[in-house]
Amino acid sequence: MSLTIINQIKNILSEIEYHDKKYHDEDDPEISDDEYDRLCKNYDELIKENQNYEFLPRNKIGYLSSNQFNKYSHNEPMLSLNNAFSIQEVKEFIEKSNKFLLLKKNNDLELMCEPKIDGLSISLIYKNGILINAVTRGDGFTGEIVTSNVRTILDIPHQLKNPFPKSIEIRGEIFMKKDIFVKLNNKQSLIGKNIFANPRNAAAGSIRQRDSNVMKERSLNFYAYTIGECSKDFIIKTQSSLLKCLNDFGFIINKHATKVSNIIELENYYLDIIKLRNSLNYEIDGIVYKINNKQYQDRLGFLSKAPRWAIAHKLPPEIVETVLNDIEIQVGRTGALTPVGKLNKIKVGGVYVSNVSLHNEDEIARKDIRIGDTVQIQRAGDVIPQIVKVVKEKRKSTSKKYTPVLVCPSCNNTTYKPVNEAVRRCIKGVLCPDQAIEKLKHFVSKNAFNIDGLGEKQIILFYKEGILKDFSDIFNISDYKMLIIKKEGFGNLSVSKLLQSISSKKVITLDKLIYALGIRQIGSNSSKILAYYYHNFQNFINEMIKANDKNSVSYQNLISIDQIGKSSSDDLVSYFNDKQNKEIISKLLMHIQVIDVKSKSLNSPYSGKNIVLTGTLISMSRDEIKNKLQNMGANVTGSVSKNTDLVILGEKAGSKAKKAFELNIQTIKEKELLKMIGQKEQG
């Protein structure tokens, strides 16, 4: 795996932090909630495709709710969508769905297609046909109640038309039409107020106005596209019939919503929308495809942050030209050296860009990128800046080739580039200042110890002052209270709050601790998988030490864990068998308490069980059965060992069944499994 993925993630998280500040601190959003979500979705997609490189935390789906409006917890999370950037990726989505559902390979799934409006997602809650609440997406789990503002939108009925269910949650997109946007900015300019960058910003800023009269003047629109939680008296069989129902209730649905029956019809729809894009009176950033059959939707279910039954097909990105002025080196948490291109600032995809990751020296050589070159830039998925190519006909004689950095710019130690890897590294670990700082930042981040008041600025200061060198030092900061108080930006109150925050975070769950250690290739998802498998931290460490022997049962168990694999396993084993890391962990454990992780579903017969699937499964696909078992709290592993609790035998079960018999491990047939999970046999 190259450094490409790591730096893409860094770029995304940096942009998310920037927009968080613009939204929460300055109340001046530059992008809509939907575009913010695209940043998060792109991260999620990178992690899905490269699960061993979950580099930084990204559990939230959108922005965190402020204190300006009352909060509301969604009964059903408002999830984002995974992205596709080509027809081929859409085809892969369909093929995966067919495989999951155990349909014939040549089966053409019906899909509902509609333009993806670039606006603000909203949830409308109706009881007995009456609108009682309107809630923003927020972080996907908790939003803000904006009912009074939403009532001013003429497209949103206060009373549903009959017949309607006892309760229903309608979801859709609030947006501002292009012509209304132009008029609004003209007015803003005349009265000396800030103009909005684009319609999505205008919509996002309008919905959060305290004065609903201001909202009313903005003339926003709404299209409905799906439902959330609803009462049992509302039954629907297809996505297309759902849209008809929404229209019958009194909502406007997108007139371009179309059902397609095969990939040729889908491709034609995509091309038609591209042609129509500029003539539409609203901004779109892609097309949403949803599997039409609701029963199939239910079976496919959800991933942690997105449904399996839908995907967003992004439209082609804008490409612009600028000049590469210089190449600088960034040293990451794991010692990776990343070349970063410094550009003449330029606007692309609605955002100003001045830096671009060049990933690694091999990538620079492959594209023949030189300092001083004119380069073409795009934002992949309208998110990540990247160099498409060098405009060689504009190359000057003064352009300079890139020379690999043989000495770490942070600690001046020799760098190395492992065989068959694209990444150049510094191996000094916490002895390298940049690495140490990045590790400490990661340790206190939201998905780790989540220590408020100990951000990048404070960590850098404390590191330079010698207060922080490794993780355990965080819990000794109180020893330096008087020194810190004297520093600019600190006082008795702020220091007391910081110390209180640190003190409150001395108890942590196993999964968060594993993640906090910042082990190469081990992100938040991998940490959870490991925690559910090993349960106890001491047991986990002991097994990692034993696994240093590649022939040991401990190592074989480790590499058999689903979604971990050999490469990640080797990094885990290497980390816990390193003398320096052992000392760091030993010191850390003197200050913290690690809570064991229990199985996700305690009411299931499979809760906490290590289960292996073997042979050909007939009634459901292996992926579907695996998903059901994991939802019931099981750990589905790839090989049989003494730690295996149950082996499920499909047809023509081979060596794994034999090994289960030798180890006296319980086995059951597929028929028994179906009975236990309440699933009827197919056919």
Description:
By secondary structure, the chain is an alpha+beta fold. It folds into six domains: about 10-60, Helix Hairpins (Orthogonal Bundle); about 85-315, DNA ligase/mRNA capping enzyme (D-amino Acid Aminotransferase, Chain A, domain 1, 2-Layer Sandwich); about 320-415, Nucleic acid-binding proteins (OB fold (Dihydrolipoamide Acetyltransferase, E2P)); about 430-505, 5' to 3' exonuclease, C-terminal subdomain (DNA polymerase, domain 1); about 510-595, DNA polymerase, domain 1 (Orthogonal Bundle); about 610-675, Rossmann fold (3-Layer(aba) Sandwich). Helices cover about 35% and strands about 20% of the residues. The chain has 24 helices and 26 strands. The strands form seven sheets. Strands 12, 13, 14, 16, 17, 19 and 20 form a seven-stranded antiparallel sheet that branches. It has a five-stranded mixed sheet with strand order 2-11-10-3-9. A hairpin with a 2-residue loop joins strand 4 (about 120-125) and strand 5 (about 130-135). Helix 1 (about 5-25) packs antiparallel against helix 2 and helix 16 crosses helix 17.
Shape, per Cα inertia axes: globular
Residues in β-strands, percent: 15-25%
Q: Summarize model confidence as the mean pLDDT.
A: 85
What structural class is derived from the secondary structure elements?
alpha+beta
SS elements, strand count: 26
Write down the CATH class of the largest domain.
Alpha Beta
Would you tell me which CATH topology of the largest domain applies? D-amino Acid Aminotransferase, Chain A, domain 1
- Which runs of at least 5 residues are low in confidence (pLDDT < 50)? 52-67
CATH architecture of the largest domain: 2-Layer Sandwich
Radius of gyration: 27 Å
